[in-house]
Amino acid sequence: MNAADIKEKAFVEIKKIESTSQLEEARIRYLGRDGLVNQLFAEIPELPREEDRKKAGIYLNEIKLEIEEALAQRDRQLKKLSAKELEKVPFDITAPGIPMTGGLGSIHPLTQLRQFVLDTFSNLGFEEVSAPHIETDDYNFGLLNVLADHPARDLWDTLYLEDGRLLRTHTSNMQVREMKKRLSAQAGKPPIRVMTFDRCFRYENLDPQHSHTFTQFEILYVDHHVSMANLRFLSDYFLKRFFGEKTKTRFRPKYYPFVEPGVGVDALGPNGWIEIAGAGLVHPQVLRNGGIDPNQYSGLAWGFGPDRMLMAKLGIDDIRSFYEGDLRFLKQF
Ligand code: PHE
Asked: Does the annotation mark 216 as catalytic?
């Protein structure tokens, strides 16, 4: 076979190749050490004229390059085709997964605290409930004795929506919702023992102490003869479990329109007293708003900020770390 025939034959063959192993076979057959092209190179010295030997060398080199390029081109086509084939293969959900690199991850510190707090209070008979993040003015404020023109509104920097609703500023929006819900259900009369651990939102100037999104935990307990003694017990019980048996707790008078009396609950942490919770006995008007007769029943409400508590306990200096999803922060817990 002369050089032109070999080139012709190679091109036809390469176009039909269907796999990389066939491609390799063809490469060896044409361009390998004992391949067809080299066999022709071997004949060059037999040409009598110097000039012809030179021309033949150049010509064969060109053919060699052309065949190489044809092989490479077919290789690229085959890879594209196989990617297309792969797309057609149905996704196999039973296939073993790809091993994770960098460890299994960890549970977010707020989620860890959430589990601890919900465990603690469900042992005391509290049931977990939830209330909307997007709330009406009534449930977040009005029914809690915070009327529209009341100066106490300034206690909560509120994010309002265009339709008049708002992003709830505290978990206290669950209070009247839960009272009403229980009353409409036949079996729903007090005692009410509910709790929620969830997000709240405020219009804050952001800094290490303030995040527009934060967390509150809140309990509501309504029954005959619920008193400040119950509040005292629950505060002590919880804070000792959290900060350790030696922790002291104290109540300070504090104003919230929906409780009377109202208190701030402090705990003695490693760096002195820290304010943990707001609490008090549910205001009679709030009970009434929830359809409960304040002459028969009384209630307590108690809420704290899990972010602040974790910051105090773990020495975290920026509240926003809880909400930024930065792995360097999260991996530490
Ligand atoms: N909702 C109050 C706050 O956001 C806290 C609180 C809860 C106070 C329950 C009294 C009773 O600050």
From this structure: yes
Q: Which residues touch 157 (CB under 8 Å, ≥6 apart)? A: 169, 202, 203, 204
DSSP code for 35: S
Q: What are phi and psi of 242, to 5 degrees?
A: -85, -50
- Whole-number Cα distances in Å, 214 to 73, 111, 296, 305, 316: 58, 13, 36, 8, 15
Dihedral over Cα of 254, 255, 256, 260: its sign: positive
CA 174 from centre of chain: 24
Among candidates 106, 82, 137, which has minimal Cα distance to 328?
106
CB 262 within 8 A of CB 188: no
Atom 3 of ligand 1, nearest CA residue: 170
H helix intervals, 164-249:
174-184, 228-243
Tens-place pLDDT, residues 275-331: 889 999 999 999 999 999 999 999 999 999 999 889 888 889 999 999 998 888 988
Determine the Cα–Cα distance for residues 321 and 307; give it in Å rounded to an integer: 10
Rounded to whole angstroms, how far apart are CA atoms 31 and 116? 72
167: which strand partners? 134
Say if ligand 1 is within 6 A of residue 135 CB: no
d(CA 95, CA 219): 46
Q: Is 263 in the pocket of ligand 1 (CB under 6 A)?
A: no
Q: Residue 272 C-alpha to ligand 1 middle, in angstroms?
A: 22
Give the position, in ligand 1's atom list, of the atom nearest the Cα of 262: 10
pTM here? 0.69
Kindly state if the Cβ of 220 falls inside 6 Å of ligand 1.
no
Predicted local distance difference test score (pLDDT) of residue 260: 97
Number of Cα atoms under 13 Å in the Cβ half of residue 64? 17
The ligand 1 atom at the shortest distance from the C-alpha of residue 175 is 9
Q: In angstroms, what is the span from residue 169 Cα to ligand 1's centroid?
A: 10
